[in-house]
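hey so i finally got around to running the thing on that chain from the lab meeting. sorry it took forever, my laptop kept dying and i had to restart like 3 times. anyway pasting the input first so we r on the same page abt which one it is
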Amino acid sequence: MKQWYKTRKKDPFYIKAKKNDIISRAYYKLEEIDKKHNLFKNDKNILDVGCSPGGWTQYILKKNPKNKIVGIDILPAAEQIEGKIKFYMMDLNQYQLIDELFTSNKYTFDSIISDIAPNTSGNQFIDQTNSYDLSMLSAKFIEKYLNKGGNFLVKNFQGEDTEKLFKFIKNFFDKTQYIKPAASDKKSKEIYILGLLKK
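ok and heres what got predicted. didnt touch it at all, straight out
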């Protein structure tokens, strides 16, 4: 058995997710951030970028089933959220196609969230570079599709490009900050960037 799997099986958030029929432990990361910053008050239109398997979507729908969610991922969504959201199985690297689709559907959102991550290679530099590229593609939705006063949340593996990503996001919001939820592995380079109240 791989060491990673052995460690994960002892993780309290992993155990809690299994016990409560939660799709993934990522659910608790978003729950913690939302409880502090109240990202999903009232009925909202939300874009979940890289939504598979669906932990974040599951949290949003549990908080308020009237929230309307559009999800994008290269992988299928979990059965628990199928039919409850508008899901597009698309590669984020095909941003132009997604942009055309969103424009034709006249989509706008009150919140855009992205827990997207690349397949890890074990090479820290490559993984951080790929993470930056995906995080930046997620951030490209802000200008055109996020409503004024809306919020943005994205994951990134910390590296030399993280500050550049932060500054890009900061341009659009009244307040921008880094967040490391308790459910994030303390040894992981994973960090979240939160933009509040789009200008």
